[in-house]
Design brief:
Order of helices and strands: HHHHHHHH
Largest sheet: none
Helix content: over 70%
Strand content: under 5%
Radius of gyration: 18 Å
Number of strands: 0
């Protein structure tokens, strides 16, 4: 039997996937039916909630931040905000299914970055799985470049490239997040991520 912590982790992961699918579907529907694309405004609400909730939780706790770490938080938030914005913009040129499949490009990127910067190690099966993932991505992009069917008129290689750029930025933010969480508490990290994210989104909303 799997351990209780493993079951909880898998369950939370599936819940997160469901939430991501829901927000992606909503963003796609807004564009397709109403021609509304407001990526900065959509993400601003999320970052403001993070900032308010987790800054309140960590207000009376000692902070371990220095100016160097503040810049690291800013760098994380910049990559995270831009990745989220590009993910929303991609729906102008691709479908929800293509966008979610292409987001798996972040997996090999994370493996590469974490190996180099965090000294992570991966087994042969991890590397082989990432390679299979890359083959699937290549086939999907190739299909979008040659398919001019009316049913797929919302798909294009431009949307695919935007999705890949978003996934790359997600990989950078995820690896940076792992580094920062090891140096700070989760509440402090989420509060500062929300703070910087709110500023970056608010300036461009």
């Amino acid at each position: 039997m799997p351990k209780r912590q493993t079951v909880i982790a898998v369950g939370l992961g599936q819940l997160l996937s469901l939430c991501i699918t829901g927000t992606s579907s909503a963003s796609s529907a807004l564009w397709r039916h109403y021609s509304i694309s407001i990526p900065f405004t959509q993400n601003l609400c999320n970052y403001i909630l993070l900032a308010i909730i987790y800054t309140t939780f960590s207000r009376n706790k000692p902070s371990s931040s220095t100016s160097r770490f503040s810049w690291q938080f800013f760098g994380f938030s910049f990559a995270d905000v831009l990745g989220n914005v590009l993910a929303v913009l991609a729906f102008k040129n691709t479908s929800v299914l293509s966008a979610l499949v292409l987001s798996s490009w972040s997996i090999p990127c994370i493996m590469l970055l974490s190996t180099y910067f965090l000294n992570a190690t991966y087994s042969k099966i991890h590397v082989q799985s990432a390679f299979v993932c890359l083959i699937g991505l290549a086939l999907l992009i190739w299909g979008d470049t040659i398919d001019d069917d009316e049913a797929t008129k919302n798909h294009s290689w431009i949307g695919d490239m935007i999705c890949l750029s978003s996934a790359t930025l997600y990989a950078i933010s995820n690896v940076t997040e792992e580094h920062l969480v090891k140096q700070h508490t989760s509440t402090e990290f989420l509060g500062k991520a929300g703070f910087w994210g709110s500023i970056l989104c608010g300036l461009q909303a």
